[in-house]
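just leaving the lab so this will be short. what follows is a protein written twice so to speak, once as letters and once as structure tokens for the fold. can you read through it and tell me how you think this chain folds. thanks a lot i owe you, the record is right below.

___
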Amino acid sequence: MSVTVSLMSNVSRVVFAQKTLKIGLKTALNAENSALVRHASTYKAAVLKAINEPLVIEDVKQVKLKKGQVRIKVEACAVNVSDLLMCQGVSSVQPSLPFVPGFEVSGQILETNLPAPPAKEKTKKTKKETKDGKKKKDDDDDDDDDDDDEFPLQNGDRVIALSRDNLSGFAEECVVDVKDVWRIPSSLGFSTAAGLADAYALALLGLARRASIKASHLVLITTGVGGLGLAAIDVAANVYKAKVIGMCKTEKIGELLRQKGAWSAITFAENGLKKKVAELSGKHGVDTVFETVGDEVFTTAMHSVAHEGKVIVAGFASQKIPDVPMSELLTLPSFSLIGVSLRDYRETNYNVYRQLVYDVLTLHEQDIIKPLISKEFKLEQVNEALTHLTETETIGKIILTTSKN
């Protein structure tokens, strides 16, 4: 099935996405939600007290909600490369010690402190006459609820959140700004939800909005730990039907990339890597590069782009920033080098930021995309989870869960 996702403003799409995600939310809270009990004034959290030291599980006191914030009972939280960099003290946005890492969470609303929604102005609906003289509503006269952008979050709502400002996801509870919270349908499990929003929204931002990929395009995607590269392959191959070359560390991972939709997969260790990409592209070069690794992989990928192609820089899982001389850039075909950041869109183009995650949720609801959850750990195993991220060949998402089961 061919699917095209527009990231431009489109009222009918937005309404469709919101209807899909509001399933069951207009009825009374179900048994699970009614049984939801407020936690005590303290909760368990994984606290980093010193750089490059193990996180410590301890009781943390609740903080009072500020206006525009919600408290979430965390069910699952992704362990991302950015969390690891913060724990190592080398993140570009480094919080002060002590702090609780983790920003990509799923769970249920425990408490809200939201401003009252603005009162709606009542407008008289216009009527049109039919041939028999009877009155009928305008074609665009939908139910009032369909015109709502979002009705207020309520206790018990199932949600995902991208808490980059407050972090604190490696815990039983966290406080998040409401602008970083999205409802999720009951069909979406918490572990899957925690591994969905960040990587897939960034992949959509880079590939769709910035690179404008098409089914006719050849796209080179580099993959490392953390799940971003795999999400990009899922989006490029299964949403936009582009021809994807996946670049990875081992042949075992290459097989996984092909299962996800890659047309071809090559390893970093292959001799004549640039020549191999040239052969696969018919010596034309690739239309788009989606780069997530950094270091020498970035340089190789950059040399593979076609004339007037685009190189999307989305991450550096290797934790090594490439060093490319200006003189080298001038010897390559003319191409565009584009950095992408969800954090930037959150600050400068908020509507796009919100819509990207809505699009991801809708695509998952339609069974078009699906994140790979490589391994789950309990909150008490947080240090094992961080070690797993650095010492294995994992390219899917690693998830912390707070369930007692």
User: Anything to note?
Assistant: The chain has 13 helices and 17 strands. Residues 1-38, 122-133, 135-149 have pLDDT under 50 and may be disordered. The first helix runs from residue 11 to 21.
